[in-house]
Amino acid sequence: MSVIFSWVMDLKDSPKKSGALYAVLVWMIVNVVFYALELTVFNDAADLNNSIMLVLWVVSTLGVVLMKKWGAALAAFTLTYAFAFNVFNVIYYQIYLLNGISATINAVAAAYLFKTMFENKYR
């Protein structure tokens, strides 16, 4: 109970979020929903990468919502990992459209998070 209370207090005291950060959060939530659907509806639970990515997306999204340094760092790592995975799909499987768009968004979002981390916008 005290953990939940401390998270609520952290949300109240967190620094202001910019519009770009909200856009990154929306993109991260879209990825959480996509990987949850991939594991359940599309029944691709045998692929361990999907389970790992779902956990990374959920934890890093929570960390960015709380405006924690570890959350921004984990989110930047997750976005970079997803970017690399999308580029692999573009090169190896030649699936251009969705993976190309996703790779571009992941690269821009990761660059933005790195920029805000170096500007010390997180607690």
Short summary:
With 123 residues, the protein is mainly alpha-helical. The chain is 80% helix and 0% strand. The protein contains five helices and no strands.
Percentage of β-strand residues: under 5%
Which runs of at least 5 residues are low in confidence (pLDDT < 50)? none
Radius of gyration over C-alpha positions, nearest whole angstrom:
15 Å
Helicity range? over 70%
pLDDT average, as an integer? 89
Whole-Å distance between the termini?
A: 23 Å
**3D shape:** globular
Number of self-contained structural domains: 1
Number of helices: 5
Number of DSSP-assigned strands: 0
Biggest sheet features: none
Structural class: mainly alpha
- Please write the string of helix (H) and strand (E) elements: HHHHH
Notes on the protein architecture:
With 123 residues, the protein is mainly alpha-helical. The chain has one domain. 80% of the residues lie in helices and 0% in strands. α2 packs antiparallel against α3 and α2 crosses α5. The radius of gyration is 15 Å and the shape is globular.
What is the topology?
Elements: H1 2-13, H2 19-40, H3 48-65, H4 69-93, H5 97-118
Features of the shown structure:
123 residues, mainly alpha, 0% strand
